[in-house]
Amino acid sequence: MILYSFNMELSNLNIFIPLRSNKGLIHNTLSQKTLLLNVNQFEKLKELKSSNKIESEIPFDFFLKLSKIKAITASAKGQLKNLKNSDFEIKQNNEKVMLTIMMTEGCNFGCKYCNQGLEKSTGYVDEKLMEKISEYILNLDPLPKELEITWYGGEPLLRSKEIIKSSTFLKNICSKNNIGYNSIMVTNGYFLNGQLSKDLYEAGVLISQISIDGDKISHDASRYVVEGKGTYEKIMNNIKSSLTSRMNIVIRVNTDKRNHKNLKNLIEDLHKKTILNSKYFSIYFAHVYDPKLNMLENQENVDSTLLSHHEFAKIQFDMGNYVRELGGSIAIELPSNQGECIASRKQSFAIRPDGSLFKCYIPIANPDESFGRIENIKDSMESRTFKKWNSWSAFDHPNCSGCKLLGSCRGSCRFNYISNSYKNEEFKCPPSKYFTNEYIFQKAILDGLVKPHDWDNDKSKTKIDDLRFKPITI
Ligand code: SF4
Ligand code: SF4
Question: Which label site among 132, 137, 219, 263 has the fewest CB atoms less than 10 Å from its CB?
Answer without folding.
Answer: 132
